[in-house]
Amino acid sequence: MVETGIPKLDEYLNGGIPKGKSLIYFNHPGVEGDVFGMQTLYHNLVKGGTCVYVTSSSNPETLKDQFKEFGWNIRQFGERLLMVDGYSSLIGALSTENYVVSDPENIDSMTEMIDRAMKDVPKGSIIMVGSLSTIMDLCGEEKTLDAVKMWNKMAMVKEHVFIYNFTAWPYDESTLKSIKNEIFNCVISIGGIAERVIFGQYFGVLKADWSKVEVHSMLFRILRPGGIRIYIPKILVTGPFNAGKSSFIHSLSTRAVSVDRLGTTIALDHGHIDYKGFSADIFGTPGQERFDPIIRMISGEAMGIFLVVDSTLPKDFIRAKQMLEITKGYGLPYIIVANKQDLPGALSVDEIRNHFNIPEDVPIVSTVATSKKGIYEAFDILVEKITGGN
Amino acid sequence: MERYSLGIEKLDKNINGIRGGSNIMIIGPPMSGKETIVNNIVYKGLKMGDAAVIVTTREPGENVVDWFNYNNLEIPLDHLGIVDCVTKTLGVPTSDTATIRRASSPVDLTGIGVKISQFLEEFWMKKNIRKTWLCINSLSTILMYSNIQTVFRFLHVFTGRVKASGAIGIYVVEDGMHDTQAVATLKQLFDGVIEIRQENDIYLIRTTGLNQKPSPWYEYTIEGAELVLKDGE
Ligand SMILES: Nc1nc2c(ncn2[C@@H]2O[C@H](COP(=O)(O)OP(=O)(O)OP(=O)(O)O)[C@@H](O)[C@H]2O)c(=O)[nH]1
Ligand SMILES: [Mg+2]
Q1: Fold type of domain A230-386
Q2: Is there a smaller number of Cβ atoms within 10 Å at the N or the C end of chain A?
Q3: Whole-model pTM?
Q4: Among A169-173, A331-335, A349-353, B127-131, whose mean pLDDT is lowest?
Q5: What number is the ipTM of this complex?
Q6: Which residue's alpha carbon is at the smallest distance from atom 14 of ligand 1?
Q7: CATH superfamily of B3-232
């Protein structure tokens, strides 16, 4: 298996891409889909793999620099990264690469170099086409796709994994259809949420012929440095007065603000966390009952809920359930954060489950928000529920 | 939808404002000052509080900013986004700035598209600016590296984005560089044209498609950084 190195994606693909298979990142124009290919390449170079990169819209050195934006130095891999230069000849520049496509507007010339590079690398390498759309633009849709079918077959024999970046310009309907449905073993669609402008980006698995794919769609963001992060725009933190919600958010967040007066939250808390492959915005509600309308207001469109309780105060649990109700939380994934576990008289997770009458499948995590104990565990568990892994 | 003006008084009077979402081609012979005209339009827009995205295919992004500075035209840099398709082809190591983002080359339509989209998002969502100009200077360079169908597909997407966001698109085309068929193909994507014509030593400008009737031809001169129109015919 070759991993994509994209958070969650390998899980959705049952571990990654089997040897000999092809995958295409099918990008909608204007969405930063190239980074997917780049991240996959870097991930595999780091893991010791050998890769061939076919460039057609930028010169090889420029391309290498581009990785640096994300904190990825790909020059360190030396001979394990081969470049097929399908760009320099196009603009009449000299190339220092070993595999130079002499006529990028002729698909046979491209095939010749790809074939040669494929034979020079060990079995199970990654062959990445930086921009299939550019090749199609230069060599024609039909000719290119015929060649691609052949490349995929050649790769199968050598057990290479073929990965393509593709921008879905408004090509012929039939071309797009065969790309989506026929030519590749796996299609990852990368799109934008657009209204007046594109303001959010997501990816999803359209097809993977080696695993039964349930359709997942994940929002993502791109960090520089860092690369692709699953983006969760709204996680709600709610719970009774003084339970430790604000403390929980501040401990978890890379940056956070609270609108408090005299130590109690009167408007809301907001935090942002970048952790592992995830990037999330967290919103906390006030605990006092007089603010319940605010809870209703800010709970719209939440993707999951932390219900924070003070483990020493079972009398507040009814209130906690009531707040969960307000947030319509029963439809959303939620977990219970059993906070203040450091205090004497704190109830255990099991005791809370009984008191609360919590179904077995709702996780309860014990935490000490003020000293960060248990909070990342809580985050991991809720995110796993939100993103629905296997 | 928002209405825009070109900041060229005589033409503006004639066309009576341009509907947001319009895409306009500016076509004229080499050396006729198209760039100055486009920069003037952008400058007037910026002065009104609009934002602008300039795709530069002929000179590095820094030069575009320098032009305004050199001519003492003060511009709010936080309203300006430049997509630089040149610097990276020169092999000089550079990085992006808040104002200038660089595509790999004029062939890299994917990268150009991403950077345009990022600026549009930034102006609309983060800076709450509702009026934006998108200027591609020039389509002719892009057409040197990619064939007409490819450029058509690219423009199909981005004229659509301009429409959706109520911006104005301005696309510079060198007259005489492309066959008439190519120009006619591209014209299908545009709502109007700013035409420039040379007669002996005289340059003339008019708009078509932006009002029921074409505007009259106006003789103009470029004085320094300024576009000066004489009375119409
Ligand atoms: N010992 C202990 N104290 C905690 C813990 N978490 C929070 N606290 C304290 O509990 C008090 C309330 O914490 P906050 O984070 O403000 O609670 P809150 O839920 O935001 O409160 P409201 O916004 O007023 O509803 C503060 O004094 C915290 O220092 C914990 O795990 N252990
Ligand atoms: Mg609080």
Answers
A1: Rossmann fold (3.40.50)
A2: C
A3: 0.92
A4: A331-335
A5: 0.94
A6: A244
A7: P-loop containing nucleotide triphosphate hydrolases (3.40.50.300)
